[in-house]
Design goal:
The structure is a homodimer.
Chain A lengths: L3 H10 L29 E6 L3 H10 L5 E7 L3 H11 L6 E2 L15 E4 L6 H10 L3 E4 L7 H14 L3 E3 L7 H11 L6 E9 L12 H4 L3 H17 L5 E7 L13 E7 L5 E7 L6 E7 L2 E5 L10 E3 L2 E2 L7 H15 L9 H20 L3 E2 L3
Parallel strand pairs in A: 1-2, 1-4, 2-3, 4-5, 5-6, 7-10
Antiparallel strand pairs in A: 7-11, 8-9, 8-15, 9-10, 11-12, 12-13, 13-14
Helix pairs in contact in A: 2-9, 4-5, 5-10, 8-10
Chain lengths: 373, 373
């Protein structure tokens, strides 16, 4: 029988590859205002999934003011030992995938950040919710909208918050473009283009295993263009068309998409043209076009410094470590117990999953799919 | 009965609107090497259609070495008078749309450049061919591949050459990107993006009249992305999918497309994502992406200076007046009587028309259309 542990052992055996292009390189610059004294409340966070991205978040959290890494959940005892030493995590705050429901009885943990393979998020987040802890879930929140909605419902029922790791909603260049759009500086928005992708490495990694990933590039990197189209255009799409191209059927097996082009239509008549791929380099480009101006971001969603320009010139916003800023801001949201003012909650993530469902349906049918977000 | 003259009177009554964006502004810089002495053969050209673009070509030809403007064909006597004075054209080299077949007996004209509304090209080029003169035809060569092929066949039968006004095939920045691609400097090509469009003005102009235009933005401006995808990728597409969006059904009547997104697939597995529109600003962008690098051109096809950069830096090629260079180069081709080394002949234009046919068919059916170029 295939168990979660089997999955995670495979995961541990393979590197979690991440884009090697410059835009996805680690940003080592400090978060804005990190030297400002802070003596307010702090959210105590456990990270579930100690892989490459989990480690990136742990490192970034060392600079947080409102968030503190206090716990870890992993199927690999050696990783837990390592994290205990590295991040000064007490052994009592460490769990594995069998016993982490016991976090319910741990008053020293307020929230769990789930950073495991996509297909595991659904069950894990629901278990976190049932344990009475807030959940932060890495994107994609789930592998389809139905599972996503179940997660939202479970968190609501348990009286905990569910946020999704949409770090771009805290990134200053991105926020500046959104501010300009809302202020009408681009006029009426007519077009958005989102090109997101990279050449994926190790063919044995979980991202290329449908059971763990739930899909291919679209789940992992195409979702940036989906979410991006919504925050750049400022509307939710009402239709989608999509086309898949596969050049390597060995590396990209049935159900694991290599390259998908998709088009979105918005209520205003604006359209988006997007590309998601695991087989191209240099792609991390957003372009927003309105009757009064335009914005271009390249890189637009990578971890490193975001760069952008508009018809008015270069965007010169502070360079931040995305994950530090995200965890500080999300901690503020969870500590305040309020609805986030930026769209990073589970309900927003379900919208992106509805688009993903629509894209896969359009690829399968060859037809336009209407969306109701 | 609607006659060609009716059409042309309507045409004369309405401005031939051209993009007002910077990239389409007139370039006043001189053509490269125009000061080099030249005493070789000269092609004597008549222009048919004395509208806005015909006038632009006439002006540009004043700086040509191998081409000389010697004749004019128009349905408007006042325009012919004006051109006679302005360009020193003898009255005996002037014709109207009824009598221009008589150019057959005029030994002072070698070729006719047809710059009339799209739907008229077919009959006019065939008449030029039957009069024994070389034809240069403005793009789109015809309104569908069938008519285009008939033009190619008629010219072949008459023993004359047929070239199409694809000026980008002579433009230095474009040629440099093609050279780099052929030299392998971008590695294996995986993706091309072509965004071409502008906000069209006067709703009464012929470009928005299906009988004269044969379609909408795709015929006029989207064809740049079609032809561009072929010369940038270096392959001919084998499938196309397309989606139309219309926000203004009054301005853009039945059969006149406002915005079309289309996607192309190539034999290598490379894909293209393109947009053609009469309802957006700031669009004249090409992006070519390979495993080893990339090229971006913006503006990519406008009349003004083309600008571009690659992963290796800015493209710094000579700035030219496209139409001067085109007419000099095409005259060289016609005077030599050889197959052009750049793909600007009628057979190449038929390929683009096959893609246009495919795009309209895909819009109509909602399905992917296979192409055989």
């Amino acid at each position: 029988m295939n168990t979660r542990r089997d999955f995670l052992q495979k995961l541990a055996a393979s590197a979690i590859a991440f884009p090697s292009i410059t835009s996805f390189a680690a940003a080592t610059v400090p978060v804005v205002g990190c030297n400002t004294p802070y003596d307010g409340p702090v959210l105590r966070v456990a990270i579930m999934g100690l892989g490459s991205y989990g480690t990136r978040v742990a490192e970034a959290m060392q600079s947080c003011k409102k968030a503190k890494l206090v716990g870890a959940i992993s199927g690999t005892p050696a990783k837990l030992k390592n994290w205990q030493a590295k991040y000064n995590i007490p052994e009592k705050n460490c769990y594995n995938y069998e016993n982490f429901d016991a976090v319910r009885n741990n008053p020293d943990i307020d929230a769990v950040y789930v950073i495991t393979p996509n297909a595991l998020h659904h069950d894990q987040v629901i278990r976190v919710a049932k344990a009475g802890k807030h959940a932060i879930c890495e994107k994609p929140m789930a592998v389809n909208a139905k599972e996503g909605q179940e997660m939202v419902d479970a968190c609501k029922q348990a009286g905990v918050k569910l946020l999704v790791g949409y770090r771009m909603h805290f990134e200053p260049h991105t926020l500046e473009v959104i501010r300009m759009r809302k202020a009408g500086q681009f006029g009426t928005i007519r077009f958005f283009q989102g090109l997101t992708g990279f050449t994926i490495g190790d063919p044995t990694q979980w991202r290329l295993n449908k059971q763990l990933s739930g899909g291919g590039s679209l789940m992992d990197i195409g979702i940036y263009s989906i979410n991006g189209s919504r925050y750049m255009v400022g509307e939710d799409p009402v239709w989608v068309t999509a086309q898949e191209t596969k050049t390597d059927k060995v590396k990209f097996k049935e159900g694991v998409d290599e390259t998908i082009q998709f088009q979105l239509g918005f209520p205003s008549g604006a359209v988006a043209s997007c590309l998601s791929t695991y087989n191209m380099n240099n792609l991390d480009k957003f372009f927003l076009d309105g009757t009064g101006g335009w914005a271009e971001m390249w890189p637009s969603t990578g971890y490193g410094p975001i760069k952008g320009r508009t018809h008015l010139g270069e965007l010169n916003q502070p360079i931040v470590t995305h994950q530090t800023l995200q965890m500080d801001e999300m901690s503020g949201i969870l500590l305040a117990g309020e609805q986030p003012v930026v769209p990073v909650d589970g309900a927003e993530a379900v919208k992106d999953l509805k688009v993903i469902d629509g894209i896969y349906a359009s690829v399968a049918s060859g037809k336009r799919v209407d969306l109701q977000l």
